[in-house]
Amino acid sequence: MSLPPRAVLVHRATELSELVARHGTRQQAGFFLQTRGRDLAELDKRHEAQQKALATVSAAVPLDWRRAVAERGDLDRFVFGPEDVVIAIGQDGLVANVAKYLDGQPVIGINPEPARNPGVLVPHPPDAVADLLRTRNVEERTMVVAGTDDGQRLLALNEVYVGHRTHQSARYRLASPEGLEERQSSSGLLVGTGTGSTGWCRSAWQERRSRLALPGPLDPALCWFVREAWPSPATGTSYTEGVLTAQDHLTVTAEADLVVFGDGIEADALTITWGQRLDITVADTRLRLVR
Question: Contact, 93 vs 164, CB < 8 A?
Fold first, then answer.
């Protein structure tokens, strides 16, 4: 007997909630802000906008559906089911945060503050949810996957970062799809999707005035950039950017302890040690974004 669908409402704690949790009471949070030339009015307004959006979305979920709520900080412990429909209520980055934990479940992005959020991944207003649950026109966005030689795996919607845990130089051997290899010392490596090429990867692309054609969000391709590669007698700077097709692999062999995390979630990272190999490629999994 099949289970009814489950609507999973994903959101992050508002700045007001975080401040009150940190300082104990609303009055103490207000005093803290006053000492820094701010007050609670703006935070109240943003908190109210999110709460109103959550209430509107919750009311639109059919009565015979199951429901669950997950905060951003709990996503790495939340168990998603195959029958789930995920409704992300917040900033564009919230969709990227949840995408890495999904396996084909559709995602509806809701923008509670259109004056603040661009709405690239959260294009819909809260009152559109009822119609979206019925129509479900889905856009499949490319994701990136990093896999270690001992079977660990990490998915990301925007980009994967490989580098040192602190600000020290990352040391590794890089092997490109063309069979070119180079030992490098750098500030780390970014491998991003077309969705991610509007963010961190685009910053690297613009800074070096790269002539690479960045992939689009639906293209089965990735772009990669080495950050601040250092030339020395033992390390080179010849291979610092490129594009990966769906058949390509970018291979990193660690020559120091390195971390690998996706979409800025450092708390949910892989660690590779000296001699371990990491392969990065286009993921079979796609984000199914409801449009």
Answer: no
